[in-house]
Every structure is written in structure tokens, then in C-alpha cells.
Specification:
Elements (H helix, E strand, L loop, with lengths): L2 H13 L4 E7 L4 E8 L28 E6 L5 E4 L5 E7 L8 E5 L4 E5 L5 E4 L8 E5 L8 E5 L6 E5 L5 E6 L2 E6 L12 E6 L7 H24 L2 H8 L5 E7 L16 H14 L3 E8 L24 H15 L5 E5 L9 H16 L6 E5 L10 H5 L4 E9 L3 H4 L3 H19 L6 E9 L2
Parallel strand pairs: 2-15, 15-16, 16-17, 17-18, 18-19, 19-20
Antiparallel strand pairs: 1-2, 3-6, 3-14, 4-5, 5-9, 6-7, 7-10, 8-9, 10-11, 11-14, 12-13
Helix pairs in contact: 5-6
The structure holds 2-acetamido-2-deoxy-beta-D-glucopyranose (NAG) (5 copies).
One 2-acetamido-2-deoxy-beta-D-glucopyranose binds next to helix 5 and helix 6.
Keywords: Glycosidase, Hydrolase, Signal
GO molecular function: actin filament binding; hydrolase activity, hydrolyzing O-glycosyl compounds
GO cellular component, one term: cytoplasm
Length: 451
């Protein structure tokens, strides 16, 4: 797609999706000024971006990670995983809180696993009374796979088919079994449930998109998206409009291209190669940003999480470093490579684990390139100086801080001038506290404001 689309994208950047950034990195003796655009939603899906790619998914309101609740039509009570999991499933709650809320893992367009709040899965018990519903499996298998059958006239009215082929029924408040053979949709039928979809919990990231379309359709959808969302002409446009770099978010599965683990789709590596070719042609530098790491570093859809949990930690460090090693090796010899960002926006991760990873990731880059900058993203939930001393011990390291005048009532209540004043006062002083004579370089990787 050509310029017209890109303008739209740029508007998004400014006003909605925090996608434009300008940064100034200072060294001891000179100022290196990088003005770049973040090519978000290209090689890593960010569902808030338009146009939506999700509309063609069957049951698009039932994606991975979507949280649902089930109320028995007959009893008018919610299904509940007692104690949040590790125990039986009952139907005796009048209010739905976390024990009554189930996260979907999508198996196909109609089959799902139900993850309860202690992270276990609902399944059929395997002892006597195998038809009884329990929530005690750490991993979902056949016995944890249920089909949601929606009523033709009312998609919120459902019945749940167990792996045995029979339907669930709430016989009484304390007895939920998987042995119903009828087919009635009457409200007093024990197999009929009202499904409440917590629509603010719907995640729209790469996992949801590729798994939503499934292995038959996802490859075509992704390839079309990669080929049209950003094109060579956009690189020309960026370069002729005063910018000198692009930041390209990539996902960990790119290192296993062309056959990444499901549901991810191969082919993005060739697109990244194209991006380097185009960048070189138009005199732009490239920042490769590892935006989605295995396990998810923040639980956000753009980290390619399946269901919103942040799992990244020590056990994921080797795989994450291997991804950096792969990227550094592949692009180190390109003079277009400006920097590799080791991880985008960690949030809620253990700081010691993060430092351990940053140290190893730094070494992986330096093993292949002495000139590429290594960017360390500051944890979103920490003070912006938390890595200052640590990062200052390396050479060619940049701290990336993201300033969002957004996602908070505080900013929407302020008018335009107050927002601008806030940046001049608080953001500027925060930035200057980061800029020390012998410290690391600093980079504002993303900023945005709502107007
Ligand atoms: C920066 O300037 C100082 C003092 O002028 C000089 O000693 C040092 O070598 C310079 N550093 C670089 C990286 O050019
Ligand atoms: C629901 O049933 C379980 C199992 O019998 C019981 O332990 C729990 O107290 C009941 N809760 C309510 C609110 O009735
Ligand atoms: C979805 O998966 C279920 C359970 O594995 C299977 O019975 C069903 O046929 C599948 N449906 C489709 C449309 O593939
Ligand atoms: C989310 O659910 C609420 C309440 O059920 C409904 O009013 C709203 O329209 C829904 N929003 C979307 C985007 O479906
Ligand atoms: C860097 O290269 C050395 C020598 O090949 C190797 O032993 C080490 O594991 C590499 N470090 C990383 C982090 O990849």
C-alpha cells in the first residue's frame, strides 16, 4: 500500500497508538540525533491498529486469553472453580469474580480449554465419577478440550460439549457433570448456559490473530499483511520527510523462520531482510527491536502472549539470548544496522533476571558487532534511573524510556497546553536526570499524547 495508507498510519502514530518517536542520544562529545518511526503492527501484530485484521476470524469474540463466565440458565448461578482451581467445579455463585472467570485457550474455532485463576485447566476427573468437572490439570489435553455450541438466534446462549461428546449440565448447585444427552435450548434446561464475555479482556496480538485464523488461513493473512502494510514506498517516504531511521519490532519466532512453532507463521524473516535492503537504498538506519520474547515480558498483546500472563524469567533467558544472537549474526555486517534492542517494555519482571539477560544479550550482540548500539528498555513499572548505573558499565549501550501521556485519566483530563507543559516540565527533567556525562546514551523509544 502506498502513501495514503502510511499517512493514516502516521496519524495513528501521533494521536492514537504511540507509534512515532524522535530521540536524541547524547555521547560525551557529540550529539547523535536519531529521528525514527516505529513500524509497529507490521512484523508483530498490535490489534489496536487499523485496519483490523481480526474481522475475518470465526468466533472472533472468543480468542486466546479472552475471559468468560458461565451462568447456568436453570439455576441462575455462575460456574465456579472452587478455590480458584485444584478442585471441583460447582454452580452455586451469585456473583462472578476470579474463581468464576475462565481464560480461553483456543484449540480451533469452536473448541477451547478453560484456564482458571490458579492457571490450571478444567477437565473431566479421571477417577470414579469421571463425568464430574474438575479444575486440576496443569496442561490441557483431550480431556480438557470443550466445544462451545452457540444458539443460532442468541450467540451468548451456549451449551458446552465435553470430550466424551456429551454436554455439561448443572444438575444442582454442587454437581456439574458431563453426561447430558438431550438437545433442548429451554431456559430451564440444565445444559444451557449464558456466556458472559468480558470484552475488555479480549487480547488482540499475534498469537490471537494467527491462532484465530488457524494453520490453513493464517499464512495467507500474514503474508498479505506483511506485503501491504509497509512497503518500499513507505521507506522512501520516511527518508524524504526528515527522518533517518526506522525501529522494527520483531517476535522471537523470527529466529525459527520459516518453520516457527504454532500458531506463528513463517515468512517474516524475508520481510525483515527486505526492510534492510530498502533502508539502505533510502539512506535509513534500522533498529531491530525484540518486541515479543518467549514467555511474554509484560502480558500485553504486543508481546505475543497467549492469555495475558507474564511468564518471562530466568528459565527463558537462554532462548531469548539465542534470538538476539541470531539477529546480530544475520545483520551485523550491514552498515544499515544501527542498534539491536534486547527487549521491549518489560513490566513486572524480576530486575536481577533482567540484568542477567541484558548482560548476556549485550555479549551476544558484541560477539558479532562492535559498532551496533545495544538498547536496553527500561522496565515500564520502574523509575527511569533504575538501569543507569548498570548500563553505564557497557560501551555503546542506550537506555530506552517510553513516555506515554496516555492510558491514564490524568492526561485526558488535562487540556492540550497542560499536556505540553507536563512534557516540558516533568518529562524533560526526567530525561535530564538520565543524561550523565559518562553514563549510557538515552533514547526515547516511544512517546505519545492524546489530544
Ligand atoms: C571526548 O572528549 C574527551 C576530552 O576532550 C577526550 O579525552 C575523549 O577521548 C573524547 N571521547 C571520544 C569518544 O571522542
Ligand atoms: C458452593 O459449593 C461448594 C461445594 O459444596 C461449597 O464448598 C461452597 O461453600 C458453596 N458456596 C456457596 C456460596 O454456596
Ligand atoms: C475442533 O476440535 C474439536 C476437538 O478436538 C473437534 O472435535 C472438532 O471437529 C474441531 N472442529 C473443527 C471445525 O476443526
Ligand atoms: C462489551 O460489553 C458491554 C456489556 O455487555 C456492551 O455494552 C459493549 O457494547 C461491548 N463492547 C464491545 C466492543 O463489544
Ligand atoms: C560469544 O561468543 C563466545 C565465543 O564464541 C561464546 O563462547 C559465547 O557463548 C558467546 N556469548 C553469547 C552470549 O552468545
Amino acid at each position: 500500500m502506498g502513501n495514503q495508507f502510511f499517512y493514516t498510519n502516521l496519524l495513528f502514530i501521533f494521536y492514537i497508538s504511540c507509534h512515532y518517536y524522535v530521540s536524541v542520544a547524547q555521547t560525551e562529545n557529540s550529539t547523535l540525533s536519531i529521528k525514527a518511526v516505529n513500524l509497529g503492527n507490521w512484523l508483530v501484530i498490535e490489534g489496536a491498529m487499523k485496519p483490523s485484521l481480526f474481522d475475518g476470524i470465526t468466533n472472533k469474540d472468543l480468542l486466546d486469553g479472552t475471559q468468560v463466565q458461565f451462568m447456568s440458565a436453570k439455576l441462575q448461578k455462575y460456574l465456579c472453580a472452587e478455590h480458584g482451581g485444584g478442585s471441583i467445579v460447582v454452580a452455586n455463585r451469585t456473583k462472578a469474580l476470579s474463581w468464576e472467570t475462565f481464560r480461553l485457550w483456543r484449540v480451533n474455532e469452536s473448541a477451547f480449554n478453560f484456564r482458571v485463576s490458579n492457571k490450571q485447566f478444567v477437565g473431566l476427573g479421571n477417577q470414579a465419577g469421571a463425568n464430574k468437572l474438575v479444575a486440576g490439570s496443569d496442561l490441557p489435553g483431550n480431556m480438557e478440550t470443550f466445544q462451545i455450541v452457540r444458539n443460532d438466534g442468541d450467540p451468548k446462549k451456549i451449551r458446552i460439549r465435553a470430550p466424551t461428546g456429551l454436554f455439561l449440565q448443572a444438575i444442582s448447585e454442587t454437581l456439574v457433570t458431563a453426561d447430558y444427552e438431550g438437545s433442548s435450548w429451554e431456559d430451564n434446561d440444565p445444559s444451557v448456559f449464558k456466556m458472559i464475555i468480558l470484552n475488555h479482556t479480549i487480547l488482540k496480538g499475534e498469537y490471537q490473530l494467527t491462532n484465530g485464523y488457524g494453520p490453513d488461513r493464517a499464512p495467507t493473512i500474514m503474508q498479505d499483511h506483511w506485503n501491504t502494510y509497509i512497503t518500499e514506498d513507505d521507506f522512501r517516504f520516511i527518508s524524504t520527510n526528515g527522518l533517518n531511521a526506522v525501529r522494527i519490532p520483531v517476535g522471537w519466532w523470527i529466529a525459527q523462520d520459516p518453520t516457527p512453532p504454532k500458531p506463528f507463521v513463517g515468512g517474516s524473516l524475508e520481510i525483515l531482510d527486505n526492510a534492510f535492503t530498502w533502508a539502505q537504498k533510502y539512506g535509513l538506519k534500522v533498529i531491530v527491536d525484540l518486541h515479543a520474547v518467549p514467555g511474554s515480558q509484560n502480558g500485553q498483546p504486543h508481546s505475543a502472549t497467549r492469555d495475558g500472563y507474564r511468564e518471562w524469567g530466568d528459565s527463558y533467558i537462554p532462548d531469548t539470548v539465542a534470538t538476539i544472537d541470531f539477529l546480530a549474526e544475520r545483520y551485523a555486517d550491514s552498515e544499515t544496522l544501527l542498534a539491536i534492542e534486547l527487549m521491549n517494555e518489560p513490566q513486572g519482571v524480576n530486575l536481577q533476571s533482567l540484568k542477567k539477560y541484558y548482560q548476556a544479550g549485550y555479549e551476544a550482540v558484541r560477539n558479532h558487532s562492535l559498532s551496533a548500539y545495544v538498547i536496553m528498555s527500561n522496565p515500564l513499572d520502574r523509575d527511569s534511573r533504575v538501569l543507569l548505573q548498570f548500563a553505564g558499565a557497557f560501551s555503546g549501550v542506550v537506555i530506552d524510556v517510553h513516555y506515554y501521556n496516555f492510558f491514564s485519566d490524568k492526561f485526558s483530563k488535562m487540556n492540550v497546553q497542560q499536556n505540553i507543559d507536563y512534557i516540558k516540565k516533568y518529562r524533560a527533567s526526567d530525561l535530564s536526570s538520565l543524561t550523565t556525562s559518562y553514563g549510557p546514551l538515552v533514547f526515547v523509544g516511544k512517546y505519545c499524547t492524546s489530544t
